[in-house]
Q: What sequence folds into this?
């Protein structure tokens, strides 16, 4: 999927996850969207002579869902696009850079070529420093993990998320969720796009300075000279020889000697040849050190940007997408790997695990029930026995019994190790059925159940795991909890 399609799909996901109570989209709306998308995807696939794919189905379904939401709530449609912000930045930033570069050399005497031109030397020094930083950055983990302009990139990626005041709270929550999710997913693309603009603008800034030098040289005669409190002619000659070495090596430019530098100290030569020599040297150096490398970096960033924009990185193995695409074409079977902890599963609960799997991963799913890990067993020993089947599972869940009291040294250690060794983020299922049978009919039983559930949820949060309460004797009783758990897991 490309960037625009992916944006619509993520927005559709945000709406459906926020709309637990079906106030925005009813079950009939969702089923109609799926049916229509399936038909449209089949037609499109048939025209292309290829099999229907999840990407085409999700694209068509997102179109149906967003069209329906926009019809009922027109103000929400402004979230559908924010590319105009990038377009404005892509035009304004290079233009400002070119104008600024043209004007910066006029900070000094506009009729003089200074051998120690502060603006031009600063341009060279800043760009060399930038190249060094770009080379060093990937090798420093603390710096690599940071995106110093993340806030600005987030704003550019998501656009303005202010919505009409009369918009339902559910859609406001969906907009917030979309902003967070899209920012996370689009950050690599936004960073590549921003780098392209910055590198291109830096090249135009240097080009503006070069154009300024030649434009003033056409209209007036330069005076040439230099002054320094700390440098003598020999030191300045060595410095300028180092700076201009690349330009003199590649281009047939007139060189200079120590005598030439000494002759210009504190003077203002009116020889056109003197002025032209230094203009050519500075222009060629800016071209080689700034303009060419920055344009190359801009092209590299553009290549990465186009690659990400055409193939936007959305994880279609996520349970939400698996559920939607489970009935199209020849969908692969999604495997729910269940790891009971100190929990013996009877026949009824075993059968109902398949219902839970379908609620988590879609109708085309099956359960891989692993042997129960005994209470007090070493977590490492249990993980060693599970390594062989981890690659086959679309989602791994740990199954706890609400009857048990969570303990850090046992349940917590198991969760911590599983989070490190499993593929993807695991989920904790807390089965309430046995505890409900035991205390549900007692006085104050409902309160005890709520307290025990809160204890388990808090415990799992401390171990960076999303907890979902299920009832393996009546799975549909906790359908909303399962959906909320999927939402929380995707946002964690």
A:
């Amino acid at each position: 999927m490309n960037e625009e399609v992916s944006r619509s799909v993520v927005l559709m996901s945000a709406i459906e996850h926020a709309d637990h109570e079906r106030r925005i989209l009813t079950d009939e709306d969702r089923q109609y969207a799926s049916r229509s998308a399936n038909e449209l995807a089949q037609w499109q696939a048939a025209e292309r002579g290829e099999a229907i794919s999840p990407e085409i189905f999700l694209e068509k379904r997102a179109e149906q869902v967003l069209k329906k939401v926009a019809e009922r709530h027109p103000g929400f449609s402004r979230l559908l696009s924010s590319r105009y912000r990038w377009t404005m930045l892509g035009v304004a930033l290079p233009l400002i850079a070119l104008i600024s570069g043209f004007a910066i050399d006029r900070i000094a005497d506009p009729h003089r070529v200074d051998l120690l031109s502060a603006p031009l030397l600063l341009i060279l020094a800043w760009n060399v420093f930038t190249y060094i930083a770009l080379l060093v950055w990937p090798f420093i983990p603390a710096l690599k993990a940071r995106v110093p302009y993340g806030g600005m990139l987030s704003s550019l990626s998501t656009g303005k998320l202010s919505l009409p005041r009369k918009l339902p709270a559910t859609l406001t929550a969906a907009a917030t969720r979309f902003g967070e999710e899209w920012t996370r997913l689009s950050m690599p693309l936004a960073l590549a796009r921003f780098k392209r603009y910055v590198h291109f603008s830096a090249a135009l800034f240097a080009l503006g300075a070069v154009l300024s030098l030649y434009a003033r040289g056409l209209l007036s005669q330069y005076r040439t000279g230099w002054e320094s409190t700390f440098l003598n002619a020999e030191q300045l000659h060595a410095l300028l020889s180092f700076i201009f070495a690349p330009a003199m090596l590649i281009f047939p430019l007139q060189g200079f000697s120590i005598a030439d530098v000494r002759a210009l100290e504190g003077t203002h030569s009116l020889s056109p040849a003197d002025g032209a020599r230094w203009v050519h040297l500075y222009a060629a150096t800016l071209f080689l050190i700034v303009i060419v490398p920055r344009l190359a970096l801009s092209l590299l960033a553009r290549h990465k940007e186009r690659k990400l924009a055409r193939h936007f990185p959305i994880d279609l193995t996520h349970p939400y997408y698996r559920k939607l695409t489970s009935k199209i074409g020849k969908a692969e079977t999604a495997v729910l790997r269940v790891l009971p902890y100190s929990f013996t599963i009877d026949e009824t609960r075993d059968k109902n695990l398949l219902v839970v799997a379908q609620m988590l991963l879609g109708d085309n799913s099956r359960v891989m029930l692993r042997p129960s890990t005994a209470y007090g067993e070493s977590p490492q020993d249990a993980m060693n026995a599970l390594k062989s089947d981890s690659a086959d599972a679309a989602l791994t869940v740990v199954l706890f019994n609400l009857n048990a009291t969570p303990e850090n040294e046992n349940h917590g250690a198991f969760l911590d190790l599983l989070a490190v060794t499993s593929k993807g983020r695991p989920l904790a299922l807390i089965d309430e059925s046995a505890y409900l049978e035991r205390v549900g009919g007692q006085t104050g039983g409902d309160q005890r159940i709520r307290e025990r559930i809160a204890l388990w949820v808090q415990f799992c949060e401390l171990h960076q795991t999303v907890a979902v309460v299920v009832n393996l004797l009546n799975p549909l009783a906790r359908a909303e909890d399962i959906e909320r758990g999927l939402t929380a897991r995707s946002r964690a």
